[in-house]
Amino acid sequence: MKVLVTGGAGFIGSHLVDRLVEEGYEVIVVDNLSTGRRENVNPQAWLHVADLKDPDWAVGVSADVVFHFAANPEVRAEPRVHFEENVVATFNVLEWARVSGVKTVVFASSSTVYGDARVMPTPEDYPLEPVSVYGAAKAAGEVMCATYARLYGVRCLALRYANVVGPRLRHGALYDFLMKLRKKPEELEVLGDGTQRKSYLHVEEAVEATLRAWRKFEEVGEPYLALNVGNVDSLTVLDVAGLVAEVMGVAPVIKAGGASSDCRSSYLSVEKISKLAGWRPRLSSADSVRRAVRELLEELESRRGSSL
């Protein structure tokens, strides 16, 4: 089977590519390398450098299934960036899948589609009420996926990831804390009041959940399905700051700072994916954070002092 992974030079996408290659799939990576890194791409995969905002991005490319993981992950980016990188790009992938006869698209959605949910842990049938343009763009992507599935037979599995952490991570609170503490280990400012609560999942477990869900989805007859992918517990931002400092061996004064543009809380129910695909995380949120910090520090050390 030939598998195409958009955003395969990025964080989750590159780990997914590694696993697919390991399992013997023929893998094509499509990435414009704006945030992804060429060195993240498995040498046994074929890298096609192209911009998904271009309707002709797929010239010379074919595949049996598409994992659409390309996106701008920075919640605080300008609204037009989210529209172009996360909505237009998703439309172009779906339209290519329709024209090319691709039967399955796995779409990397996000827990941000729920906004500040009032039900915790949040199930998949909770209303989509995003509080950021990033979340709105992901919700729009899901609606397009569901519509293409209904109208054109392009079956789509939308996976709503919570906070995924691990090596090659380049955004989010954990990464920001690590970089800030490298520069100024005696002090750390966090956004908001620090009581925002979220779950954290290691990227290795996110990839395992992705593959199990995809394989089970191929067995069922539903044209469209949305599943949460997250952990079964949660941490506050202050908890994460403390864990990062602990692993780094520093004791900063932690101060609440500027406003946060993200959801205040994000804690997803994973009962649906557990029942469907038999997947549950092995590591707690705290252990996922500790492992990710250690791996990122090792990654930094391997670059001999260069920036992550």
TrEMBL record:
Question: Gene3D superfamilies recorded for this chain?
Answer: NAD(P)-binding Rossmann-like Domain, UDP-galactose 4-epimerase, domain 1
Q: Which InterPro entries match?
A: Epimerase_deHydtase, NAD(P)-bd_dom_sf, Sc_DH/Rdtase_CS
Record-annotated NAD-dependent epimerase/dehydratase domain positions: 3-230
State the superkingdom.
Answer: Archaea
Q: Name one Pfam family in it.
A: Epimerase
Q: Show the PANTHER family listed in the entry.
A: UDP-ARABINOSE 4-EPIMERASE 1, UDP-GLUCOSE 4-EPIMERASE
The name of this protein is NAD-dependent epimerase/dehydratase
Source organism of this protein record: Pyrobaculum neutrophilum (strain DSM 2338 / JCM 9278 / NBRC 100436 / V24Sta)
